[in-house]
Amino acid sequence: MKPRTSPDSPLLFEEVPLVPDFKLELKARKAGHWPVAGADEAGRGPLAGPVVAAAVILDPRRIPDGLNDSKQLSAQRREELFAQILATATVSIASSSSTHIDLTDIRKASLDAMRRAICGLAIPASYVLTDGLDVPPGLACPGQAVVKGDARSVSIAAASIVAKVTRDRMMARADAVFPDYGFAAHVGYGTAQHRAGIERHGPCSLHRMSFRPLRKDGTEGATMDELLED
């Protein structure tokens, strides 16, 4: 049996980590669109709490160092970048409540929050880059959906950080109002602690009753993709 050998070009066989940059924004600018906003949301998967969206227009001369997908950053680093983004960029935030999510669905509620965040920018965007597969309907400007956008565009990465920090802070405050569920620890995701709290105390007004296992009408409820952590 011949021994296995390493490929002579290992980088061709390994996934190179994505690092967000400003190329998509500059491409849009070259096409005549400026300013360009990045938009993202946080909180599609939790069993409780709102989904929060943010839209950010970065100043090309003052882009904070270290912008990245919010999931790749520590909570402390997200907080630091959150402050820097708010100090240097144009930012808008919107949310859809658990009631809104239950009345529509998580995808529609997320896109609606993203649309309102984009429309709420103090400086109207000429073009929008959104994370994922969809551009929200009803925008006054064109846009582009970017798969893994928070790892490819610094504008989307900034929006992901703003949305995540805002939502985490909201859930920390919710913990003070509803202390039986541990919202400050898991921010609404379906952890063992959270499920035990629901089992012991029943759901509260922040819970998404259309999501499994809260949904009791025998239908499927939220899909697995919707329950995946942001």
- State the helical fraction: 25-40%
Number of domains: 1
Order of strands, widest sheet: 3-2-1-4-5
Cα distance spanning the termini: 45 Å
The number of helical elements comes to 8
Shape, principal axes of CA atoms: globular
Query: Biggest sheet: strands, sense, closure?
Result: 5 strands, mixed
The CATH architecture category equals 2-Layer Sandwich
Question: N-to-C SSE series?
Answer: HEEHEHHEEHHHH
Q: Number of DSSP strands?
A: 5
CATH class: Alpha Beta
- Please name the CATH topology: Nucleotidyltransferase, domain 5
CATH superfamily: Ribonuclease H-like superfamily/Ribonuclease H
Question: Could you tell me the strand content as a percent range?
Answer: 5-15%
Structural class of the secondary elements?
A: alpha/beta
* Unreliable sequence segments: 218-229
How much is the average pLDDT? 91
Radius of gyration: 19 Å
